[in-house]
Design brief:
- The protein contains 7 helices and 4 strands; from the N terminus they run ββαααβαβααα.
- The protein is α+β, with helices and mostly antiparallel strands.
- Strands 1-2 form a two-stranded antiparallel sheet.
- The longest helix is centred in the last third of the chain and has 23 residues, at 139-161.
- The radius of gyration is 16 Å and the shape is globular.
- 21% of the residues are buried.
Amino acid sequence: MSPVGDRIVELAAVRIDTDGSEREFHTLVNPGRSIPPSVIAVHHITDDMVIDAPHFSTVGKMFTEFAAGSTLVAHNARFDLGFLQESLARCGMALWAGKTIDTVRLVRKTHPGLPSYRLQSLRSIFHLDSKESMQAHRAGSDVRWTVQVLEIALTKALNSCS
């Protein structure tokens, strides 16, 4: 899965404002091409699921407006940001220039020595929510688990300072 060769098929985010209120952004994205079987095997999103979804040119504008003025938090941010930046550039849109936090890097510092830092491994290690509707490698579920990992890591970092 390469940001240059592949396309975003789902985009999700949770915006947590300073007052603690939350807003969600979630949409499937029509990639304008067939989704390879090897990629479908990871996230289980099929061509039929995205046929009527908006293209990234529409979604990218909506997402950048939603995320404006915020800090993006992602698990393995280099991977997600690579797809976002490549998709924005492909549509002639301004690249993300805001701050980014990578929860992989953060949790490696706050919880050294874990057997794995993959999000799915951290789900088990930290006993993250696993509602029946939550599916691994789907953007909405991964976002919720990333928020939980961020909270765990920041709580540990703050408790270490006191």
